[in-house]
Amino acid sequence: MSNRGRSLLYYLLTRLMLAPLLLWAVSSLVFVLMRATPGDPVDAILGAKAPIEVKNALRLKLGLSGSWGEQYIKYMGDLLHGNLGESLTSSGAKVTEIISNFFPATAELAIYSMAIALVIGVSVGAIAAIKPNTGWDLFGRLFGIITYSLPLFWVGMLLQLLLSVQLGWFPIGTRFPATMTPPAMITGLFTIDSLLKGDIRLFLTSLHYLCLPALSLGIVLSGVFERIVRVNLQDTLKSDYVEAAIARGVNSQAVLFNHALKNALIPVITVMGLTFASLLGGAVLTEVTFSFPGLANRLFQALVARDYPVVQGVVIIFAVIVVIASVAIDVVNAWIDPRIRY
To answer: What residues have CB less than 8 Å from 8, skipping those under 6 apart?
Structure first.
């Protein structure tokens, strides 16, 4: 094995060894925060005026009667055995079942939102970079600053008001019309499942309902990619190897796409891993705004209801996804760019 291969393997093993420590920190933090914030899940279930005896009986049944230390030991023991517990408010439904039922919707929203963010961000950033000191460059700068600072819920509400209420082009919310039967469950992603079944009508309907929430989330995230592509592509176009290629008479388009843009996109790959955490966080606001039945919306409902097991389980799953995405992005980035050494 080459030195580069050994260094990359060492880096990968190090990250994988640190992953359990990070997940333990996240799971411990969410455990403490859920119990330190005001509110009682028993009061949320029974109401504040319920008899004390009834509250104590329910608290004992739900495993909330012991001290924090006793609850924490049981909580960590269940996690080590892969048991995320049962929901306090959903008639004892297992948290793993809730995650498996609601996660595909969030995954589909995340995939389409990231695709929209990349297409818009890379396109605007590239055009602004190859046309410096022009109106396109000014537009790119303003686009990156404005989209990065826009409140996500405000963008969603604005698109709803304009494209749904005023123009009637898109549904105002939900994931699929109540008058139609969703595609048969294969992957849980409606657009993919409808294509696998060969039903174009269901595919277009699924895409129609997904378009507006994915667009609102994608627009906000696109500002990050626009700024990175514009700055890096401008620096790359001024580099020695690009000027040397132009001096040798290489076609300008070949220089742009084969040399400059390819290297300018390397930081984008790195930022994709970091943006994934923002994507999951932004999905909460987007799903709540559009009443989208995804896992992020279910997390919001569990927070309101003080459903400890659901909140803890969903946050841990999100943390696992972010860790895996970060490691995968780093490995892909190192494979693409031979200059990187770990």
So the answer is: 331, 334, 342
